[in-house]
Amino acid sequence: MTTKTLVSLEGLGLCEHCGALLSIDDMPGDSIDADWACQSCEKILSHVSFGFELDETKKENTDFKKIKWVGPDGQWVSEKPVKDFDLGDWSVQAEPIQYPFY
To answer: How many CB atoms lie within 10 A of CB 41?
Structure first.
C-alpha cells in the first residue's frame, strides 16, 4: 500500500501554460520569494495557476481573490470542495492544514 502525500486544497493549481497539476507543497521552500516554475514545462507560474484573479473591486492592484479550485477530477471547479479527496499520489485536505509548531 502506497502512502499518499498530504496537500492543501488551497495550494493546488493547474499550470496556466501546460495544464499540469501543481501543489505549492511540492515547490522548493528556499525559493518562496523567487519565481516558481512549472515542474513540467518550466515556465514561470503566476497567481492564475493557483486559481486567483485580480480583485477589481479593490483600489490597489495587489489584491487577489480565489475564484476556482482543483476538484477531485483534477480539473478546475468554481465551487470550493468541502470534503477531502485523493488525487493521484496526493491526499487533498479541503480545510486548511494546521501544522504544529513547537
So the answer is: 14
Those residues whose C-beta lies under 8 Å from the C-beta of residue 19, and which sit 6 or more positions away, are none
pLDDT at 55: 72
102 inside domain: no
Does 63 reside within a domain?
yes
> What's the structural domain count of the chain?
1
Angstrom distance (rounded) from CA 80 to CA 58? 22
Whether residue 100 is contained in a domain is answered as no
CA distance 14 to 17: 9
- pTM listed for this prediction: 0.82
Range of the domain at 25: 5-93
| Grid cell 515556465 in the structure block, residue | 43
pLDDT tens digits along 33-68: 678 889 999 999 999 999 999 877 666 666 888 999
Task: Tell whether 98 is covered by a domain.
Answer: no
Q: What is the pLDDT of residue 84?
A: 96
